[in-house]
Amino acid sequence: MAGDNRPMSVQRWLHLSIAAAVATIGLKTLAWWLTGSVGLLSDAMESFVNLAAAVFALWMVTVAHAPPDDEHPYGHGKAQYFSSGFEALLILGASGGIAWAAVQRFAQPQPIDAPVLGVALSMVSSVINGVVAWMLMRASREHHSIALEADARHLYTDVWTSIGVAVGVFLVQATGWLWLDPLLALGVAANITREAWSLLRRSVDGLMDHGLEPAELAAIDTTLQRLAAEARGAVRFDHVRSRRAAQDKFCQMHMHVPGDWSLARAAAQREGVERALMEAVRGLRVTIELLPADVEALNAATPSQEA
C-alpha cells in the first residue's frame, strides 16, 4: 500500500473553534446575566454545547490521524463521524434544556433588563461565530473533514439563533409582551433540534463505505488510461474500486502484466502507477494486485461493486 502524510492542520482549526466557544460563552453568559432573558440564556447554553463539541471533535480528529495498526490496518479516519454524532446528541440535550427553561418562564414571565447592552454583547459573539464558521467550512472542504463541517454548521446555526433572539428581545421591549421571550426560546430549541437531526443522519451515513468523488474517480480513470497507452498494451487495469473514510481515500485494483516479466520489472511498473495515481488524487492510498495478463482473480468484484 502506498500513501502520503498529510499535515495535521485540522486540529489547528478546532483549536480556533474552542477559543471562539470560550469567548462567546463569556459574552453570552454576561448578556443573560444583565438582562435575565430566557432567550439569551438559551443562546448561552448553545455556546456551552459548541465548546463541548469542539473539544470532543479535537479528540476524535487526533484519533483519526493515528497511523494504521494491526487492529486498524486502514487507519482510524472514521472516528470523525463519531465526533459529528456526539455533537448532534449534545445539541439535542441542549434543546431539551432550553425548552424546559422556556416552559418555566411561560408560567412565571419576567421583564428584560438592559436589553441594548445584552443584545450588543450577543451580536459581538455572533460576529465571532460567523467568521469562525466561514473559515471552518472552507477548511472542511479542503480537508474533507466532517468534524470541521459539523462544527461549522453548528456555529452557523448559533449565529442565526443569536440574531433571532436579539430581534425577540427588542420586540419584548417594544410590545411589553413578556411571553415572546420564552416563545422565542422554544423556537431556538426547535431550530437546533432540526440541525442535530441533520448531523446525526450524516454521521450514520458516513460510517458506511462510499466511493470517491466523481472528479477524483475521473482523474484515476484518466491516469490509468494514459499509463496503459504508454505501456503499448502490455499492461491493463481492471476491478478498480475506491472508498472514503472521512478525508482518507483508498483505491485498489488489479494490474495485469505479461507473464514473462520478472518480478522486479512488474514491481517497478506498479510503483510508477502508484506514484502517478497519488499525484492525480491528493491523499490517495493505493493497493495494486499484480496478475499475469491471462489470469483473472477468483475474488474479482462484480461490476456493481466497482468504483
The CATH H-level superfamily of the largest domain is Cation efflux protein transmembrane domain
What Rg is obtained from the alpha carbons, in whole angstroms?
A: 26 Å
State the major sheet: 3 strands, mixed
Distance between the termini: 18 Å
Strand order of the largest sheet: 1-2-3
Percentage of β-strand residues: 5-15%
Helix content: 55-70%
CATH architecture descriptor of the largest domain: Up-down Bundle
What is the CATH T-level topology of the largest domain? Alpha-lytic protease prodomain-like
* Element-by-element helix/strand order: HHHHHHHEEHE
Q: How many beta-strand runs? A: 3
Ranges where pLDDT stays below 50 over 5 or more residues in a row are 1-8, 301-307
3D architecture notes:
The protein has helices at residues 9-35, 38-64, 79-107, 115-143, 146-175, 180-206, 214-230, 263-280; strands at 236-245, 248-257, 284-292. The chain is rod-shaped and about 90 Å long. With 307 residues, the protein is mostly helical. It has two domains: 9-206, Up-down Bundle (Alpha-lytic protease prodomain-like), CATH 1.20.1510.10; 214-305, Alpha-Beta Plaits. Helix content is 66%, strand content 9%. The model is unreliable at 1-8 and 301-307 (pLDDT under 50). The two termini are 18 Å apart. Helix 8 (263-280) links the parallel strand 2 and strand 3. Strands 1-2-3 form a three-stranded mixed β-sheet, with helices on one face. Helix 3 packs antiparallel against helix 6. It is built from eight helices and three strands; from the N terminus they run H-H-H-H-H-H-H-E-E-H-E.
